[in-house]
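Standup notes
- DV: blocked on the single-chain target, sequence here:
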Amino acid sequence: MHKTSAWPLAGAYVVLVVYASLYPFTGWRNQEIPPWDFLFAGWPRYWTGFDVAANVVGYVPLGFLLALSFLRRGNVRFFAAHPNLAAIAVALAAGTLLSLCMEALQNFLPSRVASNVDFGLNAGGTLLGAVLAAGLELAGVLAHWNRFRERWFIPHARGALVLLALWPFALLFPAAVPLGLGQVFERLETSAADWLLDTPFLEWLPVREVELQPLVPAAELLCVALGAFVPCLLGYTILRSIGRRAVFALVTIALGTLVTALSAALSWGPTHAWAWLSLPVRLGLVFGLALSALMLAVPRRGCAAVLLLVLVIHLSVLNQAPASAYFTDTLQAWEQGRFIRFNGLAQWLGWLWPYAVLVYVLLRVSRPEPPPRIPA
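- DV (later): unblocked, structure below
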């Protein structure tokens, strides 16, 4: 049987909501007021349309995934008469409780303000998402998806599908190199030095004899190509046929290009949406597509082995380059400007996605593949 991907996606989204709600996790203090006091406060004096939309839209996927998880897990026999209403109720209760906890905890953060309006908007977003999931179930859309999944993917595809679903969101956070997810070395080095400052352990850190140098065009081309190649290979490990692999590769690289353009538009403005598409980047996308074409006929286990090698090379080359000054300014715009609420929703995904793929593939290749089932 195909296991639903909605449940792990809902869990991942809860973690991201917690991060975005409590960022930056510093300056905790006790104001000597009940944490639930915000529920009885008056209408906030300052609010914007962006805040309203962010609070509603931010919880719509949560409600959708929670309701879908309830419907897909096959444990709704107790609610057989009205499973869709039960799914909406369970999702709304879980999302509302999560929002209540987040707003209550924001009382202890100086940079965040607990608001009953935010709480109501979050609950409304959860309800909208849950109603959407129930409506799609009633309309038969989810049944069509199940049939599509059975035709295209192998039964044990949930982990890869979850990672592939998260990939476009990881690309939303601006990367120093297009499609270059997982560039964490420089930040880890700086953070470790800050944490160990004024301690004897600071001397334990290795000292770089040579400063990180910007990537030459050939290295940038390679990083872009491998960044496009990785999700294609991941999809190849779960797809059933060569033709479906070809369609998947085209759609994946096109989607990555469009999402990167959206990220650039959000960061620098709509007029600069395609400014990142330099000659090395264009050649890298073509090279990534060519590599994907060469792997179309390779067995799934072989694709997983190649994926491990590609990930190691990609992360090694990418983390030997520093972030540019323009990239640093872009990070500040996301971390201190109007995108602060989405900071945790994409930043950590962009950093950790390739490493999660690495762990998943290692676990995958370490297990023997089940023998194919012969239909009766």
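- Follow-up: Residues 335-341 have pLDDT under 50 and may be disordered.
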